[in-house]
Amino acid sequence: MSKVTLYGSSLSLYTGRARSYLIKTGIPYEETLPTSQHFQENVLPKMGGRRSVPVIETEEGEVVRDGAAIIDHYEAINNQCFSPVTPKQQTLSLLFDVIGTEGLLRPAMHYRWNFPEENLDFLTFHFECFIPPHLDKKQMAEKQMNRMRKSGENFGAVPSTFKLVETLYISLMEKLDQHFSRYPYLLGNKPSIGDFGLIAPLYGHLGRDPKPIRLMQTKAIRLYRWVERMNRPEPDIGEFHRKEEDYLPSDEIPESIVEVLKHIAIDFVPETRAAAETINDWLQQNRTMDPCTNAERHVGIASFDIEGTTINAIAQPYRFYLLSRLQNYVDSLKGSDKKSVIELLQSCGLSELMQMRLTRGIGRHENREVWL
Questions:
Q1: Does the pLDDT of residue 308 top 80, yes or no?
Q2: Residues 12 and 54 occupy one common structural domain
Q3: What's the CATH code of the domain at 25?
Q4: Which residues have C-beta within 8 Å of that of residue 161, sequence separation ≥ 6?
Q5: Domain that holds residue 23
Q6: Would you say 216 and 224 are in contact if contact means Cβ atoms under 8 Å apart?
Q7: DSSP character string of 237-273
Q8: Under 8 Å CB-to-CB from 306, ≥6 apart: which residues?
């Protein structure tokens, strides 16, 4: 397979998702920052007007923007090599993809921006790397960092929620650590699309920034091993007795994964419900919008309560773009397959997700998410 250029950053949550996929698939790539004249003149015009990372450019000049689209692109070429074929495992693979890229943004932003004593020098160095040399690196990096700090607040990471965010995240680490003490990946001895979704926050922010990486290394050693494993081309499963590179047989779902999902449901379900209501209200107000209009990154503030704490966070249509892939897959199942999947979601406290739908679909057109 020809070599590709990955435009992104080691600091970027979403780049970590695409990079891990390229590594595990054995696709040769070169990673670089999106700061070159070539990027400005040849790549950016093919990105649908949205500057973001990750983006890949093939040797033939094809450009694919967004981590999900990059993985979709290569899964189609590689015969869906990291997509389980059994109903329960495929359902959870798609579910973890949403959870990783949308459901853990609050702890990811909290542990990055609210511990300046540990993180500030580390972050300043990386943000200055984004700035071309002829500009004022210090001033522009500080401006960008302040903008991202504000994004953390927009995701609901504010002083009144700090304790809840930390409590939920530490418990999640413990439950993931228990799972990875028995299995190298979410569904056995082979990564799934869900693993690539989950690595986005658990490497780019939580497994790399000084404050959260120390937390993971001291409180969740096996989880940290999974983070390492997801960034290595080999299976890296030496400490496990079973060596076959495949998913668990007979559509098995470990109880440890059920426990992880029960915990995630505590805040993922209320936030998704509130976000759907907020976005649907916005869609009603903008019901004359033409098809193929670019889908905004956020369209309002969703308010919801978690264990007695009120959280206000931006409502992001992209969450439902990913969630619809899960919903459509489950809708396509028949008979006992569908029954077993619904029962699994119910046992995890997540069956309500099947009803949380937007009144208007989201697709992709010219490298952008658009309203259908």
A1: yes
A2: yes
A3: 3.40.30.10
A4: 106, 309, 311
A5: 4-77
A6: yes
A7: -TTSS----SBPGGG---HHHHHHHHHHHHHHHHHHH
A8: 164, 168, 266, 267, 270
Percent of the chain with pLDDT over 70: 100
Give one word for 246, left, alpha or beta, with left for phi > 0 and alpha for psi -120 to 50.
Answer: beta
Is the link from the previous residue into 317 a cis peptide, with omega within 30 of 0? Answer: no
In sequence order, the 6+-apart residues with CB closer than 8 A to the CB of 16 are 199, 200, 203, 204
Looking at the structure, do residues 190 and 68 belong to the same domain, yes or no? Answer: no
pLDDT in tens, 272-288: 999 999 999 999 999 99
For residue 334, pLDDT over 80 is answered with yes
Closest CA to 113 of 79, 159, 67, 82: 159
Query: What gap in Å lies between CA 192 and CA 316, rounded to an integer?
Result: 24
**Could you tell me if 62 and 165 lie in one domain?**
no
Q: Are residues 175 and 300 in the same domain?
A: yes
44 within 8 A of 7, measured Cβ to Cβ: no
Residue 36 domain flag = yes
**118-177: per-residue pLDDT in tens?**
999 999 999 998 887 888 988 999 999 999 999 999 999 999 999 999 999 999 999 999
Closest CA to 155 of 201, 92, 216, 213: 201
pTM of the model: 0.97
Alpha helices by DSSP H, listed for 183-220, are: 193-204, 210-219
372 pLDDT exceeds 90?
A: yes
CA distances from 196 to 193, 256, 278, 321, 358 (A): 5, 19, 28, 17, 25
Tokens of 262: 């029960």
d(CA 371, CA 303): 24
Answer yes or no: are the C-beta atoms of 112 and 119 closer than 8 Å.
yes
Identify the bridge partners of residue 6 per DSSP, sorted by sequence position: 31, 56
What length does the chain have? 372
Q: What is the pLDDT of residues 238-260, one digit of tens each?
A: 999 988 999 999 999 999 999 99
